[in-house]
Amino acid sequence: MNAPLDLHDLHVHFPGRGGAPIRAVDGVSLSIAPGETLGLVGESGCGKSTLANAVVGLLPPTSGSVRVLGTELVGASRATLRAMRARVQMVFQDPVTSLNPRMTVGEAIGEPLLVRNLFRGAALRTEVARLLEEVGLRPSQAGNYPHQFSGGQRQRVVIARALALRPALLICDEPVSALDVSVRAQVLNLLVELQAQHGMANLFVSHDLAVVRHVADRVAVMYLGRLVELAPRDALFATPRHPYTRALLAAVPEPDPVVQRAKPHVPLTGEIPSPAAPPPGCRFHTRCPLAIARCRSEVPAWRMIGETGVACHVAY
Ligand code: SF4
Prior knowledge:
Rossmann fold, binds iron/sulfur cluster
């Protein structure tokens, strides 16, 4: 079976001031298996949202390969892109800007089905009602407008719209970070349940490691446009290999003060460098507490330590 998503050496660059390109995504390879959730984490500006937008077709890749269910999207015809884009749907961070305020939620959910001529009339209304129920809303709410819903309910509407075309791959870009803390867990649990029911793969982009730990099967860590570590979730949280991953995990507060006091202190100092002028060698060397001379000139190769892939000269 073809992977819902297969990226090979993906680059997404933008023109920068002074001629140097901004290397937002700079050589990322990964794949997602059917039904799997891959969490993609890293600080703001690491390129994770750019990667998500390139997969869904909102940004053009500079080079590399994006395969969805075995079909190459880079350089594909408009007809192929249109057919494959139905199989990849995105849930954005902000449900307010994701929905047209002048459309009822029923119209918003039904629009992709109408545009692709899949349902009309009474059958369309029945399908919209089913989708509303699937995300925990009432069919009678189909005639309401987005402003009549809470933030959590609006994100449920966005999820229903994304599910309408029965995608093989769902891309969630910080889907709960704009919501009240009190409803985040409900929306996350809904995503996990729907994924299990439909067998969708999920690329789950978040800066919040606690959220990723809740939903992901594997976790990929990005720094300055590149992957630095990719591991099964439990392996990554129990035995992080890359110094950057360790620093990210050390910064996650523990609810238990005893556990918090026992956590290793891994300082992560300084700002993330500009993707227009990434440091030579290992891009993390300007902030890494374990950097050695070699790190300043030699790009670390990707290698496997057990089930964990890591790009670091000294990780073990
Ligand atoms: S390669 Fe060197 S600078 Fe980069 S993470 Fe490993 S130890 Fe740190």
